[in-house]
Each structure stands twice: as structure tokens, then as C-alpha cells.
Design a protein that fits this description.
It comes from Larkinella rosea. The protein is mainly β. It is built from 2 helices and 81 strands.
Length: about 850
């Protein structure tokens, strides 16, 4: 009798367990952040292969089913109906009678400010996603602590777009108060508004004397206290400024006096100021002191006359506050590259360089690492080959935060501009020229912009070119690179889940200690795949997490621990020419990276390369989640290197796929212009010209297929392939790829889909979009005459568009818009030649077309 009861009880408990499993709430972990009507949406999470997908448009209350383009367990790609207007889309899945929490597509998300502080009535920018969309009105509200009343900023609609909002802050915000900031693009009612992770601190109102255009500039309130180093009666020692006398004592005493008096400007009239000094620092900066000249062509400070003695040109003691240089040249005269002579180093907060020229000669980089609230603007930097300083580049900003580097010119020979471990930074409208004639050891590694472990970084409208090229070819030279620490795989581990709770993960095979940075843990295969959480602490076999799992990982799931090498990046509107390699996310973990409207002219590829491998007896795994590659142009016109756009995750000498490397890659509205004939795109290996979405398997043995996707849910939509033997490359590691409206120009084949050795299938679940319905015809654009002499006519089938004209080298020559269905573009001032017109309709996809001016 007892045995029979136990048997019935076991059946009952088993039924309850299965019922709970069947009734578990489905979840969406990763989704496309932005789509237009007719476009595909990627959904990845925890749901069954037969789950249904529904959506609500805007503030409507009647749900509709979404057509599924491709689906498997835990993933679906659906399509927004083409006749649906642009709006906030609330999307969820239903599985076994259970409904997931919704995700919101086209929802405004603010990621960072151009300054962490703002003054009442002052201007500022917010960077993020979906901030201003056509047909809607963006809003920004500020709410003080313990208050339910909001204050609203005023949006500059003309100079705002989906990725940035320009606004004027309310005049009623109170200095010293830390405000919560809410943003909406006006779509979807209350559901469209989100709260920024970062707060905004209100600061005092005042004059931006040095034209820094940041909120904290008003704190430099000592500008009426000016010390003329040649004439001020308060200074016991006067400077001469004739280039012969030693002016070091006069300048340093003026700096010290200004600091002792509570702050001031040390003013250097036009002249040349020679520095000689027996001790280490030629000049030491002080708090609340600015050294200002009459202009960078008129006031020149020279140092480096004593290269045989250890010296530093300019020292910023840790931590210098509210100080800077303006309107002068700081010149190293040492032509020998003495290892004893550095130009400038230090650390500060609320410091700046404005309209300054730094001639570093062959000395080490300008070192301002770990500074906070830093502005470098309208300045010129030059540097030769600094062979006695390990071939460093001209600028070191590692560890900086809340920095703004804009409208500068950099001319240099080796390495690059270093921005590792930064957060909340903006690098915009700079001209960066690497001297291709420089020669150096072939083992030296060179890049242009280097940013590892960087969060909330904007790289906007820069020119990154090689001059006097071609550069020495060491098969490096990436224009923009994030590579996760290179050979130093910081905090990286991987393994198998033993057990987990809502806020922990355990692996009984581990005995963890402290970590060096702030790593995350991601579930990369098995139950809960696609989730990641920040690790707050770890000890023994247990990880403590910052928030609860949406779905508790199952025993046997694979996890990976790593630091994001690139998180919340915007790389937009940059022009590159002559670089061996282009925009590269190399063997580093990335999340929410948007690469938008960049022009790479004979400048390599947009190369996305996460990696999984057995390294020194342990598993290494770094994923790439939610990457948007939108409206870029890469071209090979001189045969120096092939070009491609896409992902080729590496699986190195590891027979089984440990986990899914790429989730949610979206490649929309791009153009790849291959060489004639096609040549290999040489990076670490040879790659074809075109679009890539395949597993790069480096065999130690035959690949063992366990049906674990290497790449899951990539979307290739509205792209162009020019001169490509095959437009898109897939293989057995590619799962649920959607290919829509891929235009072939002199490209004979749409795709090449290969099987890995001894595998019975090529790509899995490759699909295409549904065609537009007859009542929703595609947008048409006509331009004439072509060739043109004076006015280029543009006709649109729907009203509203933005027009940009580029030279074939990528220089932006015109940026204008229309609210009607036609426009006249005045091109008569353009020189004779071929130009690229980009048209971004308010409703529709980016269109690019060449025209001839004669």
C-alpha cells in the first residue's frame, strides 16, 4: 500500500513539474531596437519553436499577429507589415498559452550626455537610439529627487536625429540638484518614454569664457583676474618673450601667484617664451589657473633645450582642477627624440586645451589619462617617430570619463590615439592624419583610434586618413579598433553551469577570487541563452549578480565571463581613406554598437570578429550582441585591399561550438563596392569581397555539429553589392539569416552557402522578407539631369527627405533637407567630377546614387 502511494505521489509530482515547465512564461532577451514599416525584426529569448508573435502599434489596443519569416526554438525573425505606419511597436510572444513581457521597438533610449552637468537655460546634447523619428515630436523631461513635477527642455529639431538630441535645458532647474532625465520621441504615448541610466547635475549659470560648450565651463569664474606676465605689477619677476631670455621662472611664479589668489588667467602676450630649468618640470599647472596666449600662431612656449637631463614640459599634478591652456603653441625643440624628455602628462578634472598647438617632435604622447570632465578642442597636434618611447602615438586618454575631443587636427607617424577604459566620451569632427611615409620596425603594431573596454562612446564625423602613403604594411592599421585587451584576456573564463538561483550562478569546478575590472557573465548555450548580467562579487564557486535572471539558467548550460570591450557605441558619419583596415571589432565582446553612415574609401572593411577557442588549457569565449550596421559605404577602387561588411566569428582549433557568438546582427542600407577583379580582403586571413555572415572555423579536427548556432538571427536588408562575385557568404554555422532586397550591381550571384567539412547541411533557416502588398508601393526617387551643370532636381514619391552630397573621397559637401516631394540642389559651385548623393527619406530606406558634375 505504501509503495503504491509513493508511486502515485511520484506521478503527481512529475505531472506538476511538467505542468510548471509547460506554463513557464516565455521571455524575449534580445530584439531589434529600430525598424521601419516593412522591415524585419529579430527576437531571441526563451520560447518554443511554434510560439506566435503579436504586436501593438503606437497607442492602439487591438493586437495583430506578425508574419514570421524564420523560426526555431528561442528565436524568431518577424516582419512589420509594410502598410503599417512608423510608430512604437510593442511586441511579444505567446507560447503554450503564456504571454511574454513585451519589448518596445523604436523606443527612445538616451545613453549619454555631452557633459554630465548642465546650467539653467544652457544647451546640451543627448546621444542614444531612436531619439527623434519622422512624424513625431521628441520630449525631454527632468525630475528632481522626491518630486513628481517635471521640467521640460526645448528640442532643436533641425539639428537632432535618431542618434542625438540637441536641446536647451529648462531655466528653472536648480544648481546642485541631480535630476532624473526621461526621453521620448513622441511615439507610443507613455510606453515610449524611458529613463536614462545616467543622471544630470545642474550647475551654476555663468559665462563660457573659453567657449568650451560644456555645462561645467561656468565654474571657471576667475577670468577677470588676469596676470600679464610682461607687465603685471603684482609679479615680482617679469617675462621677456624674446626667445632668448629664460622665461621659466616668470611663468611658473605667475602660475603660482594666480593659484594663491584663488585663480586667474596667466596671460602671455605675443612672443616666444624659452624655458630652461635644472629640475624635472618646466611648468607645473595649478588648480584654477589657465595659461592663455594671444593665439597659437603668436604666443609660442619652447622647451627641450636640455635633452641630456630628465625633463617634463608640462605637468598636471594629480588631480589638477579647473585649469587649462588656450591660444598658444607648446613646442618641443629637441630633434633627437631624447628618452629623457617628455612633453606633457598628468591628470585632472574640469581641465581643457582650447586652440592650442602641441609640437611633440619625437617625444612621448600627451598623457592625460584618468582625467574626468576634459575638453580638447580646436587644437593641433604633431608627432614624429618616437622610437625611444616604444612607438607611442600622440594622445593617451586611457581611463578618462566625460570627455569631449572635437575639431582638432592630429598629424602623427606611429601607433594611434588611445582611449582604453573610457566611459562617456565624444570624439567628433577631428582630422586625424597618419604619415604613410614613416618607417619603423615591422613588429610594431599600429592603429588610429584605439578603444578597448569603452562604454558610452561617440565617434562622430571624423576624418581618418593616411597621407604620404601607402603606409608600411604590417597588415594592421585599423582606423577604429576595439580588441578586448589584445593578448591580455582580462577576467575571461567560461564553463558549465552547475546550478543557479535568481541572482547567482554556480560552477562547482571553479574556485574564483577577485576580478580586475567589472565583468559580466553571459549564458551562451542551453537554457537561458542570450542573457547577461554584471557580476557584483565572486568567491569560491559562486557568482553574485546585479539583478535577477529573466530565466534561471539550467544545469548544463554554458556560460562565459568577460568584460565588454565596446558597449553602447555610436560610430557615425566618419570618413576614412588609405587605412589598411577599417572599423574592426576584433576578438572582444561587444553590445549595442551602432555603425552608421561611415564612408571607407580604400580603407578596409567593417569587420566583426568575436572568438571562441581553447586558450592555454581553458575555454575563451567573447560574444557580439545587438550590432547595427546601417547606411555605410565601403569601397575598393585602387586594389590595395579587398573590402567586406559583416561578421565571421572565429572558432579556433575547437571541434565543438561552445556557444552562440553573434546574436542580433542587423546590416541595413549599406553598399559594398568590390574591386574589379575581386581580390582578397586581407586581415588575419583572406576573406572574400561582399557581405559576410559565417563561422570561421580553424580546424584541429573535423567539425562536430551539435546544432549550436555560431551566428543566430542576422538580418541583411536593403543592401547593395557592387562588383562582388558573390554578394553574401554563409555556411553551416549561420542560423536563421534573413536576406531582403539585396541589390546586385555587376554581381552575378546573390549568395554562396557552404558546408563545413563532413557536415550534411549548409546554413540553417536562411529566409527572405515578404514582398510589399499592392496597396503599399515601394518608395521611388528620381534625379535629373545627370550629368548636371547647375541644379540637380530630386523627385520623391513621398514627402520629406534629407540629402547629403559626398565627394568620392568621402568629404561631405552638402547637407540639406526638404519637407516636400521635390528639391533643387545647387551644385554649380562643385568642381567637375563624380559625386555621391545620399537620400534618406522620412519614410523609406536610404538611397545612394552617383551623378556627374560638368
Amino acid at each position: 500500500m505504501i509503495h503504491r502511494l509513493l508511486f502515485l505521489l511520484s506521478i503527481l509530482l512529475g505531472w506538476v513539474g511538467r505542468s510548471q515547465l509547460l506554463l513557464a512564461q516565455p521571455r524575449i532577451f534580445n530584439a531589434s531596437p529600430s525598424v521601419k514599416p516593412g522591415e524585419a525584426v529579430n527576437l531571441q529569448g526563451d520560447f518554443g519553436a511554434s510560439a506566435k508573435v503579436f504586436f501593438l502599434k503606437g497607442t492602439t489596443t487591438t493586437p495583430a499577429a506578425l508574419p514570421v519569416l524564420v523560426q526555431r526554438a528561442n528565436h524568431a525573425t518577424v516582419q512589420i507589415p509594410a502598410q503599417t505606419g512608423l510608430d512604437l511597436y510593442q511586441i511579444w510572444v505567446e507560447d503554450q498559452g503564456q504571454k511574454s513581457p513585451p519589448v518596445f521597438v523604436n523606443q527612445a533610449v538616451g545613453l549619454q550626455f555631452d557633459s554630465p552637468e548642465g546650467s539653467p537655460g544652457g544647451s546640451m546634447r543627448i546621444f542614444g537610439r531612436n531619439l527623434q523619428l519622422p512624424g513625431s515630436t521628441a520630449r525631454v523631461r527632468l525630475i528632481a529627487p522626491n518630486s513628481s513635477t517635471s521640467q521640460e527642455g526645448s528640442i532643436d529639431v533641425t539639428n537632432s536625429d535618431a542618434y542625438q538630441l540637441r536641446l536647451r535645458l529648462p531655466s528653472t532647474i536648480q544648481p546642485g540638484v541631480v535630476y532624473k532625465v526621461l526621453v521620448t520621441n513622441g511615439l507610443g504615448g507613455n510606453a515610449g518614454e524611458t529613463t536614462m541610466e545616467l543622471p544630470l547635475t545642474a550647475t551654476i549659470t555663468g559665462t563660457d569664457y573659453f567657449q568650451l560648450e560644456v555645462g561645467w565651463a561656468a565654474k571657471l569664474d576667475f577670468t577677470r583676474n588676469i596676470y600679464n606676465v610682461k607687465t603685471d605689477s603684482r609679479l615680482s619677476v617679469k617675462a621677456v618673450g624674446d626667445g632668448n631670455a629664460n622665461d621659466q621662472p616668470a611663468l611658473q611664479r605667475a602660475i603660482d601667484r594666480a593659484a594663491a589668489d584663488g585663480g586667474g588667467i596667466v596671460y602671455l602676450p605675443a612672443g616666444t617664451y624659452k624655458l630652461l630649468y635644472p629640475n624635472f618640470e618646466y611648468l607645473r599647472m595649478r588648480n584654477r589657473v589657465v595659461i592663455q596666449g594671444a593665439g597659437k600662431d603668436q604666443t609660442i612656449i619652447k622647451f627641450g633645450y636640455e635633452p641630456q637631463v630628465s625633463h617634463l614640459g608640462l605637468y598636471w599634478p594629480e588631480v589638477t582642477r579647473q585649469a587649462g591652456l588656450a591660444d598658444l603653441t607648446f613646442m618641443n625643440v629637441d630633434e633627437t627624440g631624447s628618452a629623457l624628455l617628455n612633453s606633457s602628462r598628468g591628470q585632472g578634472t574640469e581641465i581643457f586645451l582650447q586652440r592650442v598647438r602641441f609640437d611633440l617632435k619625437k617625444s612621448d604622447w600627451l598623457w592625460l589619462a584618468n582625467s574626468d570632465k576634459l575638453v580638447i578642442a580646436n587644437s593641433d597636434f604633431s608627432q614624429g617617430i618616437d622610437q625611444n618611447f616604444s612607438y607611442h602615438g600622440p594622445l593617451l586618454l586611457n581611463g578618462c570619463s566625460n570627455f569631449l575631443v572635437r575639431y582638432n587636427t592630429f598629424n602623427y607617424a606611429v601607433d594611434g590615439l588611445n582611449m582604453n577604459d573610457v566611459h562617456e566620451g565624444i570624439f567628433e569632427n577631428n582630422q586625424v592624419y597618419r604619415d604613410g611615409s614613416a618607417r619603423y620596425p615591422t613588429t610594431t603594431i599600429h592603429h588610429v583610434l584605439i578603444a578597448n573596454f569603452a562604454k558610452n562612446l561617440v565617434i562622430l564625423n571624423n576624418e581618418l586618413n593616411v597621407i604620404n602613403g601607402p603606409a608600411q604594411n604590417g597588415n594592421d592599421g585599423e582606423a577604429i579598433i576595439s580588441e578586448g585587451g589584445g593578448a591580455d584576456r582580462i577576467d575571461e573564463e567560461a564553463g558549465t553551469v552547475s546550478s543557479a538561483t535568481a541572482t547567482t550562478l554556480q560552477d562547482q569546478s571553479k574556485n574564483w577570487g577577485a576580478f580586475r575590472r567589472q565583468p559580466v557573465v553571459a549564458i551562451v548555450s542551453g537554457k537561458g541563452m542570450g542573457q547577461w548580467r554584471r557580476i557584483t562579487s565572486r568567491s569560491g564557486s559562486t557568482l553574485q549578480l546585479d539583478r535577477a535572471w529573466d530565466v534561471i539558467p539550467g544545469a548544463g548550460s554554458h556560460y562565459a565571463i568577460f568584460n565588454w570591450s565596446a558597449e553602447n557605441w555610436l560610430v557615425q558619419g566618419n570618413r576614412m581613406e588609405g587605412n589598411r583596415r577599417g572599423i574592426t571589432m576584433y576578438h572582444g565582446a561587444t553590445n549595442q554598437v551602432a555603425l552608421v553612415s561611415n564612408n571607407l574609401h580604400n580603407s578596409g572593411s567593417i569587420d566583426l570578429t568575436p572568438i571562441q577557442q581553447q586558450l592555454n588549457g581553458r575555454q575563451q569565449f567573447v560574444p557580439m550582441y545587438n550590432t547595427q550596421v546601417i547606411g555605410n559605404l565601403v569601397g575598393n577602387t585602387n586594389g590595395s585591399n579587398g573590402v567586406f561588411i559583416g561578421a565571421h566569428p572565429v572558432q579556433h582549433r575547437q571541434a565543438k561550438t561552445f556557444g552562440t557568438s553573434v546574436i542580433g546582427l542587423e546590416v541595413r542600407g549599406n553598399t559594398v563596392r568590390a574591386g574589379i577583379p575581386n581580390i582578397p580582403a586581407v586581415v588575419d586571413a583572406n576573406f572574400p569581397e561582399g557581405y559576410l555572415n559565417y563561422l570561421e572555423y580553424h580546424p584541429a579536427s573535423v567539425y562536430e555539429d551539435e546544432q549550436v548556432p555560431a551566428i543566430l538571427g542576422s538580418i541583411f536588408e536593403n543592401n547593395k553589392a557592387n562588383n562582388c562575385a558573390n554578394a553574401l557568404y554563409l555556411n553551416s554555422g549561420s542560423y536563421n539569416t534573413v536576406v531582403c532586397n539585396l541589390t546586385l550591381e555587376n554581381s552575378p550571384n546573390l549568395l554562396k552557402d557552404e558546408r563545413l567539412e563532413q557536415i550534411t547541411h549548409a546554413s540553417v533557416g536562411t529566409s527572405s522578407c515578404l514582398t510589399n502588398s499592392p496597396e503599399d508601393p515601394p518608395l521611388t526617387i528620381k534625379i535629373y539631369p545627370n550629368p548636371v551643370m547647375t541644379e540637380l532636381h530630386v523627385q520623391l514619391s513621398s514627402a520629406g527627405a534629407r540629402f547629403k552630397i559626398y565627394s568620392l573621397t568621402g568629404a561631405l559637401l552638402m547637407d540639406t533637407r526638404t519637407t516636400s516631394t521635390e528639391a533643387l540642389l545647387d551644385v554649380q559651385q562643385l568642381p567637375i567630377g563624380v559625386y555621391l548623393l545620399q537620400v534618406q527619406p522620412d519614410q523609406g530606406d536610404l538611397v545612394s546614387q552617383c551623378f556627374i558634375k560638368f
